[in-house]
Every structure is written in structure tokens, then in C-alpha cells.
Amino acid sequence: MSTEKTLRVAICGGGISGLCLAVALSQHEHIKVDVWESAERFKELGAGLMVFARTWRIFQLLGLEANFSAATHTKPDPSVGYQFRRSDLGEEGLGWHFVPFPFALSKYPHIQVDVYEAAGRFKEIGAGVMIWHRTWHILELLGLDAQFVKVTDSDPVPDMGIGFEYRRSDRKDAFSWYFVEMPYGCIRFHRAHFLDVFVDNLPSGVAHFGKRLVSYAERHAEGGIELTFADGATTSCDLLVGCDGIKSTVRKQMLSGRPELEAHVEPRWSGSIAYRGLIPVVDLPGGKHRAMDHPLMYCGKNKHVVVYSISRGTVANVVAFASDMGKENAVYGTEWVTECPKEEMLECFAGWEDEVSVLLNVLGSATPRTLDSALAAYEKTRLAMANHVVRESYRAGKMFEFNDEEFGGRYEELGPGIAARWDYLRESTPEGEWKKAQNLLRESAMSGLVSFVAAFSAALNVAVSASSIPAAPNVTISGSKTPASLTPYAFDFPDCNNGPMADHAVCDRSQEPIARAQALIDLFTTSELIANSVHQSPGVPRLGIPPYNWWSEASHGVSWTGPGVVFAPAGENFSYATSFPQPINLGAAFDDPLILQVSTETSGEAALHSAHYAYQFLDGFQGGIEPEPYLKNIATCKHYVAYDLDDWGGVIQRNFSADVTTQEMAEFYQVPFKTCVRDAKVYGVMCSYNSVNGVPACADDYTMQTIIRDHYGFPNDRWIVSDCDAVESIYDTHFYVDSYEAAAAVALKAGTDINCGTTYSDYLGAAFNESLATPTQLKQALVRQYASLIRLGYFDPPEIQPYRQYTWDDVSTPAAEQLAYQVAVEGMVLLKNDGTLPLKQGLKKMALIGPWAQATDQMQGNYYGTPPYLISPQMGFTTAGFDVNFQQGTSIQDGDTDGFAAAIAAAKEADVIVYAGGIDNSVEAEGLDRVNITWPGAQLPLIQQLAAVGKPFIVLQFGAGQVDDTWLLENDAVNAIVWGGYPGQSGGTAIADTLTGKVAPAGRLPLMQYPANYTEQIGMLDMNLRPNKATGNPGRTYQWYTGTPVVDYGFGLHYTTWSLSWQTTPASAYSIQTLVSRARSAAYLDLGAFDTFGVTVKNTGHVTSDFVAMLFVKTNAGPPPYPNKVLLGYSRVSSVRAGTAAIARISVNLGEIARVDENGNAWLYPGQYSLSLDVPEHLTHSFTLIGAPAQLTNWPAPPPAQSSSS
């Protein structure tokens, strides 16, 4: 379209959605807008309107902030935060979308906007409107924020506020279970006032009332679209936007004649009704209610009540929803809005908590007159009926539904699902959504007018829609969880025998992988390079290069989390695979050879331990260290680097800057990656979401090029991939650059070779056009990708590759399943035992209590696949011969005490009580940081009551993160505590065998258990490990924590007793110069040998057991401050029989004994050192390092702007 041409836009329907659009478009000089409304004027039926910060931002951009401010309830605040609590029930809810479309288009000089409204004025049925921070941002962009400020419930301010409080309310002992906090909190409006701002900002002549559209027709000869209205009038436009309501004429005509779409012509009912009305605050008891402070969602089974204030806190907007899921998707045949008697509403919500009952009783008594009196000060108010029933549209109801297929009746999983429904608000921006909208238009605009209109509507909906209210989920309780279906991604191998590349260098096995890959990539066009820069590469069909999905997951067994892996349907080959315990369990085993066998992320808090874990894992997973001729797999070490936070106080993983000193970066955060890349020769590294000292990790050429590639030696036959959408975040959450094109360019230039996401494929073309990056840089990235595939044998004949010979018979073998059991057993940690364990044979009646007692999927943690079986603790104890009486007692964290009585009764009848609880992925998960380290919910009170029964009592503590066990450890009525982590498919068997003594626990806690008040002492945004009195930081990890731990790192009890001694007395002095001289034969000085320490481990008890020998060192040599102690090494000896001894040999390298200076360089410092064995220490030895300090490593200096000295 020529820049001189004016685009004529016709908007049919003058509700809020159409008016918002008209106001926005009318600001553009090349757009003429007409609003065609069937009524005689704009009007708004209803009262309350809530907007959140995104909408408020729209008002500001529209220049309407001052207008809206006068009626707001709260001012917007840009800080963001989420706090989660869990419930066991939920609702289906109504989402709401409004688009400031006409006003936005009217800002373009070449777009003429007309709004056609069937009514005599603009109107909107309803009461309140809520918007969130993203919509507020759009309003700012449209320059309307100042006007909208005048009509918000209270002045928007940049403080973090509660967007919603969720409560379980269908009972008298109600409780809150979930909070949403976000920038600006929730911004609320009376709908009529919200509408008025847009009406006031529409240019004259845009709105046309009494115009009900009955049909439209494309004018192929003249171009454009002809509109016909019910009164016989006609007009034309270039673009038709149907905002004409739930019974849309535009939608009906557009979809008619297309069988696959005709089902969407008529509105579908969600099965829900909404009792809706307004309550003047003066009519409430005492003239107040909690909902006047912040919005509340009162939840019950198939019901929920939404309450929030409007009209400057003088009116409560109340909507009470009730759902009949059997009527979902029905065509509703009667009036959508009807009168209802008060008794119907009160009966529907009988038995609910008093906070709700008070509201509904007052609401049921309301009359239009009392409402009129309350709102007399607002001259433009259009009143809603006191009580009526609104039948929600099917589409609105489906937006936030939860069901069995997602949660399988496990209430504790509701939280992450609800959190995910709010993620779009905090993870996207209007600018980012606009880019997506532009892409939709590019993809669809050329396929005809109808598809153009559909794409344009979709794009605008994505770009400037106000945010929906995630209502409480509707949960039906029946069967077990069904994994989400995965659409198989086409996978094939290139044909080097008969394909297009058969005679090309890429198929020549005599050439080096880099040369083969370079020859292939030289054939790619620029568009083909761009298309294959993302994780879901489409390949190049003309060259016979098939599609390839780079995203697969296998951290503790093959997982269907990554789209590169698809399990077959049940009963077919490749329908399951062995599910090993989580890496934290393998870390607790402290058994390096076991890691090699499993070849399975975070194993613990010690840098050395994580480094050993990484080496052993990569050795097994990739088929060796630089194996020839083929790699078995390609592993990816993640998340690089200093990735330590998901969501804390409004700071999320995608906008957090991890400010780390050079010293601690080198000595702690980088250690596992150094081992991955330099020593174990990994082929993939993933850059993380966070920034490091102000630079987004995936845009940081210092960490990726200077350190990973240059310092560690990461060749060009391996690659760095972004975490998914981390490249996008460089622009839209870190705001490091000013466009997506710049984000793609800076990531590519810094060394991000694969974009998990679509930012590269969407924006690199434009980045090249703007000279922000070059195709040559992208070629380098693709050479790295395809060189790694060549190392896997991707282009070579299958018959010569050992790993292409694997079949279904090689999956989930008996040996693999036994290994999963062994890992679960070796990872068990005995934290307390007064002799009650192992259980005596006469104890047969077991009361098994707690939310983990019947755990199945919970046993796998996260990132898991479909296992061959899952053995719960209850199944394990039943198989072991116990008469098990199971009572859940309580859930993980919702505070429910209803089950206490049954649990106590079962305990009184039992010979032994076992409580199985702790935490799980409803408390700790990706995107869900814990806010405390106490036992969640009502678990501790239940444990205390069970302990008072006076029977033998064992607590099984599950989860990766620790909780404060102080009360359990100090109370003699708790006889034993066993930590089980996430023990995998055979977890139930491993637990039962451990408690009965069939196997003996010998695991060690791989992280320290802090007291509960630690979270009040440490700043979660403070990445410093070393204590700091000025900031109150008490130190992180066992090395630096200055308090007294509840349970120390490396602690673990046994069923037997031990005697430890040095096999030979270690040396009392070492010459630094001699050590360094000997080390020059090693690949790196820090890998040079220091010494090997032999420890005689004698079993002086009566039970055969394993033992982990852990060797620590402490010193005051080198720069202060000095760590408490540092792990030097460990060794696990197996099956030591009573009365016999075994030798544990612990080899220590120079790098472990060295200390790191403030520049990141490792040194051997002269001075006194003290060795200690075990936790608590049982064997010690002192030695001296003699001579001048010797530097072992030379850490690359960071750019001045990126260094941190905090």
C-alpha cells in the first residue's frame, strides 16, 4: 500500500473491544476508522472493570492515563512477583479480552477507521473490568494512560500489589492457597467508565449508530469490501473487523460453507452461569470487606466467586460462578441474561465461608434503586441489574479449564498449572507481541482477503489484547494422569547412497567432520541458513537434508518433556523406558562408577562433587572421552552460567542479573562447566535465561567465547544452544537491546549457535538487512551443528555404526531396571535412628500416613518419561509383607487437617507408624522457587500428633531441597528419619528394603540443611557465597555458612558402626615446586596429582554395609576469608561385611588443594593445612605446603563493565 493511501477500517459493534480498537487506530493519520453501532449511542451495562498493568501501559501509550486515574482503586507498580499456595479444588473461569482497536488504528494517518454499532449508543454488558501490567503498557503506548488514571478504582502506583488471592471457600474453615502479585497489582474499572475514555477519544465521524451488519461481500473488481446493514444502508471498506459480539454476523458469514469451521459459527455454552451484581460498600456489615483491599477468588468444587472493588472503593463487584460440566459445549437456547431469585443463588452457595455468605446475602437484597444511589456521583454510569445470570460463552469458559488429563486428581499439582496461566503476563511485552503479530501477517496476508482479515484479527488480538483473568480451575477427580500427547516430529537420516548429496564431500567419510560440515553449509542459501538456525530445523529438502529436532531430554532417563522424543502408545515397542532416580539421589550415593553406569543435572552443592558427576556422566553418555569413530550421544551441560533463580519477589529468571565476583565465578560457578568442556569434552552447552553481571548469558561473548571456546578449548565441531526463548528475552525482558533483530544478532555474534525458539528464524533476515550480523556468522554456527551430527554418524551407513543397531530389546532391560533400583538404594540417607531401624520382624501392622505414601509419578521428580512401572511406598511395604493401613492425613502444602483424625486412629491401631511426606514439584520446580524451607502445609502438626501416639515412628522425607528437621531431630518420639529424594520407578521397593534391613543405607546428604530462618537472613538475589556482615549475608554452602546447620553437608548414618584409620600415614610436608614440576606432564597443571590417601574402613558392627569416605581440607593459607572446609574427594566402598575392612582410596589433584585469588587465578599457597575424614570428622591429619606460591591457572579477565566486586 502506498504511504499516501488511506486505509479505511470498518468496525461493526461499539462495545469496549470495538471502541478500544477505534480509539487506538484513530491516532494514525493514514487510517480512517468507522464504527457502526446498531444502538443510538454508546452505552455500558455493568459496573466493575479490572485492568492489570499491561492494559494500564496501553492507556499511558494512548495518552489517556490522566483521564482514567480519577477512578482507579490502585496505582500501577512495575515490580513483579508471584507467591504460590496450593488447593485441592478449582473452577472453570471466564477470561476477558478487550482490544483498543479503533483508537489505535485512528493514529495512523493513512488509515480511516469507521465503527458501526447496532445499538443506539456504545454499551457493554457487565460490571467490572480488570487489566494487568502488560495492558497498562499498551495504554501508555497509545497515550491514554493519563485519562484512564481518572477512572481507575484508585490511582495506579508503581508498587507490587496482589492481582488475586485464591481461597478455598466451600467450607467454614476456609483458607488461602494461592496469591498472584504483579506490577501494579490489578487495575480495576467500572466498565462504563472504561468505555467512556475510549468514546471520548474517538475522532468525530468515526462512530455510526443504529447500524446492525447483516452481510458483507468482497468486491473483486473494484477492490475492498461492501457492507450491508439491517436498515438497508451500505458502505465499503478495505478491511473489515468483526467486533459484533458473541452472535457475530462477520464470523457466521466468514465460516459458513466451510464444514470444518461451521461448528464454530454459533456460540457454545461452557456449562457455567454467573450470578452477577454490585454492592455499595455502605451496605456491607461495618461498611467494609477484605475484597476492598485486593481482588479475591473464592473457590469451591465447580463454583467460584470473584469479588473486587470499583468506583474508587465505594462499590463491590461480585460475580458468583457455578458450572455444570455435563452441559459444556452445549448450544444454549434461551436468553443469556435472565432474572433470578435470591434463593436460587444462596442455595447454590450454601455452606460456604462467612466472607462469601455475607456478600451473597447483601447482593441478593440489592435493588436498582440502591445501586443508583450509590453511583449517583458518576454522571455517565449505566446500571447493571441487581441480580441476573450471565451464561458464559464456551470459548471464554474453556480458556482456563483444568481437568483430570492434566492433573490425575493430584491436588498438589494445581499450583504450577495456575502459575503457567499467568506466565504470559510476566513474560511478554506489547512490543514483543506486536512482533509476533507482524509475523502472523507476513505468513498469512498474501493468501486472500478472508485469510488476511483472519490473520489481522489474530495479530491484533495477540498484540494489544487486555489480559484474561485466570479463574480457579475446574478439577474432576477420577483416574490417573495421562501424559500429554506429543505430535511426532518427522525424523529421518540423509541418504548418502542414493540421495542428492551421495557424491558430495559431506558423505565422504575420509574427510574430517569440520570439512564435511563446511562443504555442506556452503551449499545453503541465506534463507536456508536462517530456517535451520533454530531447535526445530526443517532441513533442506532440495539437498536431501531431513528435518532435525535438537531438543531432547534425558537427565535421568529418556523424557517426553523434549519434543525430540516421542513414546509409542502403550503396548507397542518403545512405549516406555527405564526411569532412574533424580540426579540429586545419584549425588547422595557419592558413587562415581555408578554415575558412569547410569550416565544420567544437579548432584549437590559441592563444586568438586558436581564436577566429578559431570565427568562420569559424560564419559558414559557420549560413549567415552572423545570416542572414535562415533559418539554414542551428544550431551548438553546447562544452564551456563550462574543460573540460580527462577522467581523471587518479582525478579524472574528472564530478567535477573546474577552479579558474581570473578573469584567466585572461577572457583565455584564455573567449575562443573570447566570439567564438562575442558576435561570431559562435551559437545553441547546451553546458555541460561539470566544475565551475568548485566549481560544476558546468551549474548555474552566473554563467557561463551573467551571462557568456553578460548579458555576451556571448545572446538568448532560442537555448539552452544540457548535455553528456550532466552534469545527473545535479551530484548523483551532484559531490555539489553532495542529490538528482536538486535537480540538475534547479539546472540549469534556472542556464540549462541542454536536458538531454542524462533527468534533467529523470525528476525535474523532483518538483522542481516540492517547489518547487525552477517550470514558468514550464521554459517559458522551451522557448521558447528552439522559437524556434531557427523560425529554421531548421521550421514554414514547404519550398518557400520554400533549405536544404530540398538532395538526395542535394548530398552528397559533387566540390567537397567536393576540399576535404577540400585541408585535408589544407594541414594537413601539415614538422618536419624535410635535403633528402631531396621524394623523388627514382629512389626507387621503398619500405619502408612502422608501425601507421599501412594506416590507414583511424584517419585520421578521432573523431566521424566514413561516408565515400565512405578512402585509407590505403599506398594513396596505391601510387597514386603506388611499389613498396611494407608491414610493420607494431609496434602503437601494446602494446610488441610480434615484427615488428621483418621490418620491418628490408624496410628493407634498399628505396630509401627511411617509418615511419607516432604516436598515435591508442587513446591519446588522450574519457575517455582520456594519462599521458605519449613515443612509446608499441615505436615509438621500432623507429624507432631503422630509422634504423640507413642508407637515406633519413622519419617520418610522426600524432595530434592531440604526442609528444617529441627523438631524431628530433637524429639525422641521421632525414632528415625530417612531422606529419599526422588527415587524413581523402583522407589517404593528401595524404601521398603531399606527400612526392613534387606539393604543398609549409606548415602550422604549432598547439600546442607539450613535452619528455617536462613531465608530471612540471606538475600536471594545476592549471589555471593562468602559471608558479609554489612549485607547480613551469613554465607552460602557448607564452605561459607557461618551459622550452625541443622544437618551438615555429607552427613549420613548407618545400621552398623565403623573404625577409620590411615592405611599409611600421609606426608607431613609437600614442596610446592616439586608438586608443580611433576604436574607439568598433566594436560593442565590443576589436574596434576597432589597425593592419594588410603583409608582403612573397618565394619565394627553387625550389618553388612557400604561406606562413603569423604575427605575435607581447611587452611588459613592464601587470601582471606577462609572457608570452613572444602571437599577434596570421596570414595564409596561396597558391601563391607561385619568384622571385615576395605580400603577407600581418595586421589586429590592440585586444583582441589589450591585456592583462588580475587582475579580468578588458582594458586598453591604455602602454609598449614588440616585434613579431616567423615561428617562429623573421625580422622584428621595436618601437613604443610613449603615454598613460594605457584600459580596453576590464568583466568581470563572480564571486560571492565562486566566485572563484579560485590
Automatic annotation (TrEMBL):
Q: What class of enzyme is it?
A: hydrolase
Record-level GO BP terms = arabinan catabolic process; xylan catabolic process
Query: Which reactions does this protein catalyse?
Result: Hydrolysis of (1->4)-beta-D-xylans, to remove successive D-xylose residues from the non-reducing termini
Which GO CC annotations does the UniProt entry carry? Answer: extracellular region
Write down the superkingdom of origin: Eukaryota
Q: Which Pfam families match?
A: Glyco_hydro_3, Glyco_hydro_3_C
Q: Where in the cell is it found?
A: Secreted
SMART domains, per this entry? Answer: Fn3_like
According to its UniProt record, the EC number is 3.2.1.37
Primary localization: secreted
Q: Does the keyword Zinc-finger apply?
A: no
Annotated Gene3D superfamilies: FAD/NAD(P)-binding domain, Glycoside hydrolase family 3 C-terminal domain, Glycoside hydrolase, family 3, N-terminal domain, Immunoglobulins
What is its pathway? Glycan degradation; xylan degradation
Recite the UniProt keywords alphabetically: Carbohydrate metabolism, Glycoprotein, Glycosidase, Hydrolase, Polysaccharide degradation, Secreted, Signal, Xylan degradation
Fibronectin type III-like domain residues: 1107-1177
Q: By its UniProt entry, which InterPro entries does this protein fall under? A: BXL, FAD/NAD-bd_sf, Fn3-like, GH, Glyco_hydro_3_C, Glyco_hydro_3_C_sf, Glyco_hydro_3_N, Glyco_hydro_3_N_sf
Q: Which family does it belong to?
A: Belongs to the glycosyl hydrolase 3 family.
The identity of this protein, by name, is xylan 1,4-beta-xylosidase
The species is: Mycena chlorophos
